[in-house]
Amino acid sequence: MQDLSNVLIEDGAILHCPDDFPGEFILPDGCTAIGRWAFHQCSVLTGIHIPDSVTTIDDRSFHGCSSLASVCIPDRVGIIQSGTFAQCTSLSTVRIPAGCKTIEAGAFENCKSLSHVIVPEGCDVCKGAFPATCQIFRSAAEYRLHLAKEMAEEMVGDGVDIVGMHAPQIEQTVDSSGGRDI
Predict the structure, then answer these.
(1) Nearest-angstrom CA–CA distance, 77 and 103
(2) pLDDT tens digits for 104-115?
(3) pTM exceeding the 0.90 threshold for the entire prediction
């Protein structure tokens, strides 16, 4: 059981965690919010378990958590605010929930280890939300297709097109003269 004696919790919100809290932090069940700057500069924090009860993660909550490697954002969080995970330079895995509607500019600024992320359809991604080197995919299927194409290009060479029974279906439309456009 982790010691929460130095953690400031008020009205169900985590407001402050000491910056020397080592390892993985498990937020208590029933916690509903993570306050602004709550984990700021917790450079020895390697993981965070956020319960499904959390609906709000304020801006800059995890700013500068340079050892944080992965995070799974709960389904009820609708906005990932500006700077929430900025400067988390070891962050390489992020799960964006299906219910997320907006990812604000700078939310993942300077997350150098974040190479790709799957963002649900209908979620607005503001310019500069992710590092320029991070690829954004809109579904797991799109990401898997990307990986398959990368593997094929490594094996055969550049310019390979994926064809076959698992390739995306080509839509056919009928124009007004009865001809088909592919």
Answers:
(1) 11
(2) 999 999 999 999
(3) no
